[in-house]
């Protein structure tokens, strides 16, 4: 195995090269799984879920295609890891919102605006997080991160942590307002991401104003 003087390319076999990944250091077995997830997340910024294959991800990371299945049972399992990271980011952003405090209605407006902007900027990750994949029950990390994200929403809507994922009968009764609000903002975000809701001026500011108006109207009552 040889390397160039600049360290940018490492020769590992005739006709095959492993790209230098800035900031990651040399390839080793311990970082392949995280690198595959990171590569998928990066590709999803510009391409559809359907365009991403295990073979392509391995090519991006610089490992053989067979190596993929040393870390994931299937491509769907990798996508669930990516989706779990998305939920973790949502929860962290909403915790910052909760920590800043303020009027409950203003926080709900901000929460709605944030989800709409996320769906518009990362529509493929939004798809993965909310319904693109099938049975998610076999992926505990995805389930725990999704539950944690919803728990923060419950705290914003109800002012306290009422969510009990291990007792859904209790949660469905105690968190009805949170379920209703989530249904509204999810539908709103998906409508914008898919172009079902027109953005009259085409600007982000106009979109945020419209989302604020709709959210306040829903909070105060449709007839308000």
List its traits.
Tetracycline Repressor, domain 2; disordered N terminus; mainly alpha; 9 helices; 2 domains
Could you explain how this protein is built, in words?
Helix 4 packs across helix 9 (204-220). The radius of gyration is 21 Å and the shape is globular. A 3-stranded antiparallel sheet has the order 1-2-3, with no helix packed on it. The protein is mainly alpha-helical. It folds into 2 domains: 2-70, no CATH class; 75-220, Tetracycline Repressor, domain 2 (Orthogonal Bundle). The chain has 9 helices and 3 strands; from the N terminus they run βββααααααααα. A hairpin with a 5-residue loop joins strand 1 (2-3) and strand 2.
- The portion of residues forming beta strands comes to under 5%
Q: Gyration radius, to the nearest Å?
A: 21 Å
Mean pLDDT: 86
Helix/strand structural class: mainly alpha
Q: Assign the CATH class of the largest domain.
A: Mainly Alpha
Helices and strands, in order, run as EEEHHHHHHHHH
Helix proportion of residues, in percent?
55-70%
Briefly note the CATH topology name of the largest domain.
Tetracycline Repressor, domain 2
Distance between the termini: 71 Å
Number of domains: 2
Number of strands: 3
CATH architectural name of the largest domain: Orthogonal Bundle
- Tertiary shape: globular
- The CATH homologous superfamily of the largest domain is named Tetracycline Repressor, domain 2
Low-confidence region ranges:
1-28
- How do the strands line up in the largest sheet? 1-2-3
Major sheet characteristics? 3 strands, antiparallel
């Amino acid at each position: 195995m040889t390397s160039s003087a600049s360290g940018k390319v490492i020769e590992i076999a005739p006709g095959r090269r492993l790209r230098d990944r800035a900031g990651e250091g040399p390839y080793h077995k311990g970082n392949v799984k995280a690198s595959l997830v990171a590569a998928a997340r990066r590709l999803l910024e510009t391409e559809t879920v359907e365009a991403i294959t295990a073979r392509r991800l391995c090519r991006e990371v610089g490992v053989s295609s067979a190596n993929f299945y040393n870390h994931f049972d299937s491509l769907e399992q990798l996508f669930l890891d990516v989706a779990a990271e998305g939920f973790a980011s949502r929860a962290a952003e909403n915790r910052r919102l909760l920590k800043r405090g303020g009027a409950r209605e203003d926080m709900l407006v901000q929460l709605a605006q944030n989800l709409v902007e996320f769906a518009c900027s990362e529509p493929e990750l939004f798809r993965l997080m909310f319904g693109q994949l099938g049975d998610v029950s076999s992926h505990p990390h995805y389930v725990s991160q999704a539950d944690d994200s919803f728990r923060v929403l419950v705290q914003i809507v109800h002012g306290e942590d009422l969510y009990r994922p291990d007792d859904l009968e209790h949660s469905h009764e105690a968190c009805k307002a949170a379920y209703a609000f989530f249904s509204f903002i999810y539908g709103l975000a998906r409508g914008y991401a898919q172009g079902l809701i027109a953005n009259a001026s085409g600007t982000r500011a106009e979109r945020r104003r419209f989302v604020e108006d709709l959210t306040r109207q829903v909070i105060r009552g449709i007839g308000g």
